[in-house]
Design brief:
- Helices cover 46% and strands 17% of the residues.
- It has 202 residues and is an alpha/beta fold.
- It folds into two domains: 1-37; 58-201, Glutaredoxin (3-Layer(aba) Sandwich), CATH 3.40.30.10.
- The chain has a five-stranded mixed β-sheet. A two-stranded antiparallel ribbon has the order 1-2.
Length: 202
């Protein structure tokens, strides 16, 4: 009887140890998976003016012609220049997020929309999407100056007119990653994550 009890007790301890080992292995795999699916920042394409460099300078009329907007150079606030198109569904999906950013971050940031093409199409889009809170610039030279090839694309400039972050943005997280990169003083959030991983491996 005692022998059977001892055997069952030993088997129970073996089972407990196996469960602990399995739990540890599972926790480790979850950690690896988390690293692999870590939030990606805005996709920075290595063309055009680089992060840390002065942005190209422009002074352009707004779409409605009631004001002129200066891009580049010193300013009272940082500038988020957001390139979009009336035919881009992702751009339209991000408009409510831009409205929210425009309201909550207005103390330090101005949001400027930019595109190119025919004015009537953009005026219709401007009215339908109710974009009156934003300066809206229509200029092919602006897109060329920043080497914009795909949309939606955003460039964040500081008060001195230097580019602090840029890239393709398809979600709120990618848009906000530009602000995070500025706060961290890095070229992009992805660069920061990669440096952290390199530091951990070293």
């Amino acid at each position: 009887m005692n022998e059977a009890l001892m055997i069952s007790n030993a088997l129970l301890w073996v089972a407990v140890l196996a469960a602990l080992i399995g739990l540890f292995a599972l926790a480790r795999q979850i950690g690896v998976l988390y690293e692999r699916v870590a939030p990606m920042g805005a996709l920075m394409i290595d063309t055009g003016p680089k992060v840390g460099e002065p942005a190209p300078s422009f002074e352009l009329p707004t779409l409605t012609g009631n004001a002129r907007v200066r891009i580049g150079g010193a300013a009272d606030k940082s500038t988020l220049l957001f390139f979009l198109s009336p035919t881009c569904p992702v751009c339209k999906k991000l408009l409510p997020i831009l409205r929210s950013v425009n309201e909550t971050e207005r103390s330090w940031l101005r949001v400027v929309l930019a595109s190119d093409g025919e004015q009537p199409e953009h005026l219709a889009f401007y009215e339908k999407a109710d974009l009156k809170p934003f300066p809206y610039l229509l200029s092919q030279d602006l897109g060329i100056g920043f080497h914009v090839g795909k949309l939606p694309y955003a460039v964040l400039m500081d008060e001195q007119g230097r580019i602090t972050a840029k890239g393709l943005v398809n979600s709120r997280e990618q848009l906000e990653s530009l602000f995070t990169a500025k706060e961290l003083g890095v070229a992009s959030v992805q660069d920061f994550i990669d440096h952290q991983h390199d530091h951990q491996r070293a």
